[in-house]
Amino acid sequence: MRNPSLMKQAPKILKFYGRTDPKAYMDWEAKVEQVFNVNHVKDKTQVDAVVLGFGDHAKIWWHKVCKDNDQGSPTTSWRDIKTHMRAIFVPPSYWK
Prior knowledge:
Helix content is 56%, strand content 0%. By secondary structure, the chain is mainly α. The chain has one domain. Mean pLDDT is 84; it is low at 1-7.
């Protein structure tokens, strides 16, 4: 039997709701990076933690991304998710 105190769990990530506020997204992304760095979270655990933090529009968007992929999650890295999310939640005009 496994000892629950020895099992590594994904850290709690602040909820991201997918609102149309690019600054809110960028702030959320920076906080997620901080949590990952402080807790030394790597690879698949990062993806799981981020996806668990999705709510409202972000959750709907992610389900659509996975459904369109036919094989579930289209990515196994936080870097790839950030790329997808920036394309949706941060308009090009924000960077100018």
